[in-house]
Amino acid sequence: MKVWIDREGCISCGQCAETCPQVFAIADDGLAEVTQQPDESCEDLAQTAADGCPVSVIHTDE
Question: Full-prediction pTM beyond 0.90?
Answer without folding.
Answer: yes
